[in-house]
Structures are given as C-alpha cells and as structure tokens.
Specification:
By secondary structure, the chain is an alpha+beta fold. Helices cover 14% and strands 33% of the residues. The strands form 3 sheets. It has a 6-stranded antiparallel beta sheet, with helices on one face. β8 (114-115) and β9 (124-128) form a beta hairpin. The longest helix is centred in the first third of the chain and has 12 residues, at 75-86. It is globular. The protein starts with a strand and ends in a 13-residue tail after the last strand.
C-alpha cells in the first residue's frame, strides 16, 4: 500500500469545551465518552430520536474539551442540535476553522497524528494546519473504498440506521454504555441478531452506476448503488436476496458483492 496524505475538504470541525463535556456527550452519542483519553479518537454518531443516522463524527479528546470531526455540510446542523440539547450543561459548542487531514499506508506518522479507530489499515487523522505535500480528498475516498468502508456520501441522513452502515463493525457504537439518543432502536436491532440490510462494496466492469441505481438478483431488487468509482462502488444490500439469481445492474452488466475480511463474519452464509 502506498503512503498517502490528504486534506479532507469534505470534513469540518466543531469544538466542545467546558468541564461537563464528557457527561454532555455521553448522553447523546453512540460511543462512550467517559473513558476517552486526551489525544484519543473515537468514531461515533449522533442519531435521530428514531435511531437513524443524523451525523457521523469522530470525537478527539483534549484537556478541558474535545473536537468533533464531522461532514462539512452537517457542521452547522451539528452545532445547532448540540446547542439545543445543551440546556444548563456547562459546555460551549462552536464551529472551528481547524483543517481535517488523513494519512495512510504506514504504521506510524509521528507526533500529532491519531489512529483512526475504525480499522488499522485505514490510517490516521490530524487536526490543524494542512501539509503542503498532501493530495486530494478523492485519493482518500479511493483508499476508503478499497477497504470497503462507507462514508458520508453513502449515508442518507434521517433514513439510514447506523448498524446498516456498519457502525457496529467499525467501533462506532458502544452497546454497554447506557442511554444515548436513538439507543432503544439501535439496541433492539442488535438484539435481534441477523441484520438483513448492510452497506458493502460491489465489483463490476466499467463506470460506476449512478447513485440510487437498482442492483438486481434474479427478479428481485437486491440493493441500491451508492458512491463509487470505475470498477467498485459502495452499495446498500439486502443480504437475504444476494443468491436469488443472476446479479445485474440496470444496464445488464453483472455485479458481485466484494465483502472485506472485517465484514465477512456479519454476512450470513459466509
């Protein structure tokens, strides 16, 4: 794997300060905040009360507060929603101008880089000033897609459940921490066991199908295409329909699921 660096222009930062920041976020986010140590990054989400994905984020702990690394189009909504929940909590929530950077292809990148908690191979993140030698966001998206990790472009806000987006497999949900917004629905899906719908990469020949295009298996709709590049794309798949017949795109090209090793244990029959 080649070493890569990228400024993630599609990500933005929110700063949460104050002595009560851990308790404040503990009751909101899917990840445990009480045990996070300064400099550590944890992957999490803020859900709707109905348990659907509202904002995917990384929490970066610091002394006296934390940074929230979120999708740039969702930053203002995140600030607004956290301030709505803040009430009398002794915290401040505001947008930050820090830049989000990513690095991958090495086991160590030195001071200031924190390991991305989703997968060892996905690399590191850093917050601050951009390195002059970095590459484009698209290079990072290609790296993420090779690993089969979905991103913001794949999430349909207010419709996607975090388990469908593999947050449970990518260290994005702590099922032992107690209550958080949307916890009841999320825990119920986990208790039921087999999840019929999950995001996963698919392989095909040629250009990526348009996002939202149907993926057929026999006469059944087995999923929808999400973000992608030539030869590979993310998709939301009905796992129970993958064996229903010949798999084809709407233009009749064949396609196949390409489950990464970290995901295979969660796929029935594999």
């Amino acid at each position: 794997m080649e070493i890569g660096h990228a400024v993630l222009r599609d990500r933005a930062v929110v700063k949460v300060d104050g002595p009560a920041w851990r308790d404040f976020l503990q009751g909101l986010l899917t990840q445990d905040m009480l045990g996070v140590t300064p400099g550590e990054v944890r992957f999490a989400a803020l859900l709707t009360p109905q348990g659907r994905l509202l904002v995917d984020l990384f929490v970066v702990a610091a002394d006296g507060g934390c940074l929230l690394d979120c999708p740039a189009p969702m930053r203002d909504l995140l600030v607004e929603r956290l301030n709505m929940y803040r009430l009398r909590a002794k915290v401040t929530v505001e947008a930050s101008q820090l830049v989000v950077c990513a690095a991958w292809g090495s086991s160590e990148f030195g001071h200031g880089w924190a390991r991305d908690p989703r997968l060892p191979e996905i690399g590191f993140r850093r917050y601050g000033v951009a390195d002059a030698s970095v590459t484009a966001t698209g290079d990072y998206d290609a790296h993420r897609l090779r690993l089969g990790v979905p991103g913001f472009a794949d999430f349909d806000s207010d419709k996607t459940y975090p388990i469908e987006a593999n947050f449970d497999l990518l260290n994005g949900i702590d099922f032992t921490k107690g209550c958080f917004v949307g916890q009841e629905t999320t825990s119920r899906m986990k208790r039921r066991g087999a999840i019929k719908t999950r995001m996963a990469p698919i392989a095909f020949q040629g250009d990526a199908p348009a996002p939202g295009s149907e993926l057929l298996a026999g006469d059944l709709r087995a999923g929808l295409a999400l973000s992608g590049q030539p030869g590979r794309a993310m998709a939301i798949l009905r796992l129970d329909r993958l064996g229903a017949g010949e798999r084809r795109l709407t233009d009749e090209r064949p396609w196949a699921p390409d489950f990464p090793p970290w995901m295979e244990a969660a796929v029935p029959g594999r």
